[in-house]
Amino acid sequence: MRLGFIRSHVTAANIMLSPTAEKILQRKYYLPGEDFSSLCLRVAWAVAGAEETEELRKYWAGKYYQLMKELWFLPGGRVLANAGRPGGNLFNCGVLEVSDSRDSIYDTLKNSSEIFAHGGGIGINFSSLREVGAPVSNGSRASGPVSFMGLYDYSAGIISQTSRRGGFLAVLDVDHPDIINFIKAKDEEGVLTRFNLSVGITEDFMNATAQNNSWELRSIYHDGKVTSTTTAVELLDKIALHAWQSGDPGVLYLDRINRDNATPHLGKIRSTNLCGEIPLLPYEMCDLGSINLVKMLTEDGVDEEKLAYTTTVAIRFLDSVHDISGAILPEISAATKLTRKLGLGVMGWADVLAILGIPYDTEDALILAGKIGANMKAVAYETSKQLAEEKGAYPAYDQEKSKNIWYDNTPIEPTRNAQLLGIAPTGTISLVAGVNSGIEPFFALRYIKNVTEGDQDIKYQIKESNKYNVKTAHDIAPEDHVRMQAVWQTYIDGATSKSINLPNSATVEDIKSAIILGWKLGLKGMTVYRDGSKSFQILNTTK
Q1: Which parts of 402-454 are beta strand (E)?
Q2: Which CATH number characterizes residue 170's domain?
Q3: Which residues are catalytic, by number?
Q4: pTM across the whole model
C-alpha cells in the first residue's frame, strides 16, 4: 500500500460549532445521545470498516475522524445520518430509467418510492415515453410524459410526509414532441413542486440556434418520424421565457456530459442526479462529500499540501462508502458498484475569496479557482490509480472500451473509480461547517434559508470583510456567474451544481445569453433563477 503524502500522526482540534450547525445536526444527523465528536467517531469507524485488517481500520478511522471533526471535509447527509446503522443507505441521489410501457412506468414509480423512503432524490429522463395523442394498446390515446410526472410528484408527496423530503429532476430531450408542454409545466405555482426540470439539449440544437436554422420534433411512437417543425431560436426563447417566469426549466448539455462518460460501453448518460452535479447511468447512485476550502487557507493563501492531503483521504473515504452502504434495490447495488463513481466537491468558495480580498467576478478569482481545481483533479486521479493497485479497478473498467476522461490523448489506466469529482450544492453540510454553499457567491449580506417550505428558521449573516465590500449574487453579472462555473467545470470530471442567481430585474434575454454562453464555455448543465419568480424560494433576503 502506498500512502503517498498521508501524514502519519494527526490530532483533531476542538471545534466550536455554531447554534445553527447544532440545530441542523440535532434535526437531521445525530443519533440519540450523540454530539458532534461522537457522530464523527461513528462515521469514521463505519467507513474504515471497509479496510481488510484491524491495523488499517484503526489507521484510517483516525484520518477520517480528523477530517470531519476539524471540518476539513464532510460527507453527504446520508453518510452522516446512516453510517454505522445496520443496512443504512449512504447514497444521496441517483438516476432511474423509464421506458414506454405501463409496466415500466409503474415499476419506476415503485422504485422511486423506495429511494425516497431511504432519503434519496432521483433524476429521470422521460424522453422514452410516447407523446400526447399517440395510440396505446387499448385503443385510446397517450397522455404524454408530463402527465406521468404528475403521478410521480403526487407519490413523492405522500412518501415525504413520513420520511425525508424527496425530489426529482425530470429531463426531456429537446426534440421530443411534448417539449413545449414540458417547458411550460411549472408555470402554475403549486404544480410539480417536487420536480426540477431540465431540457436535454444537444450540440446540433445549439448549432441550429447559432445559425437560426429550423428544428424538428420527432415522434417516439412512430420511430423518429417528424411531427412538427419550429426554429431552434424560437424553442430556446421559450426555454428562457419560462425559466424567467418560474425558475424552470434548466438545461443539460447532454453531448458535453457524454464526452466525459468514462464507460461509454455501458450506455449513454441521459440524466444527472437531482441537483445536477453527478451525471449517472440508470440505477447508479451518487456518493458525495465536500472539502471546506476555508480550512485549506493559511495567511499566505491556499495550502496546497493540505488540500492535496485532504483530497487523498476524502477520495479513499468516499470509495469505502461503496463497500459499506446498505442496498436500496438490487439493481442500484449492482450498477453503483460496477463503476464506483464518486462526487468529491468543495464548499466555502465565497468565504475564501472574502478572506483573501478577491472579488468573485474578477480574473484573480478565476485564476485561484483554476489552481484549486487543478490540484484536486491531479491528486484525485493519482489516488484512484493507487487505490486500483491496492484494491482493484472498478469492475466495469475495460482497457479497450473505457475512456480516459481526466487527461486528453492519454492511454486509459486502471482507476478505482469511473468518476471522481462533482461540485454539489452542500445545502446543510455547509451550514454545519459554517461556510457558504458550494461555489456560490454570497446570496445576500443577511438572508433566511427555508429548510422546508413554510419553516423559516435558519438565519445567516455574513461576517464583514475588512478587505473589500462583498459582492453578492445579484450584484454579479450573469456572464460572470457562468464564467466561474465554467472554470471549475474545467477540472471536474462530473458536473458542477450552481445557480445563476439573477435579480428580479433580469430579462429573458439575460437568461438566453447565459444558456448560450454556458454551452460555449463547456458547462454540463445550468440552472438560472430570477429572484422573486416564485412565491416560495429557499433563500430570501431580510433587512
Answers
A1: 446-452
A2: 3.20.70.20
A3: 273, 275, 277
A4: 0.93
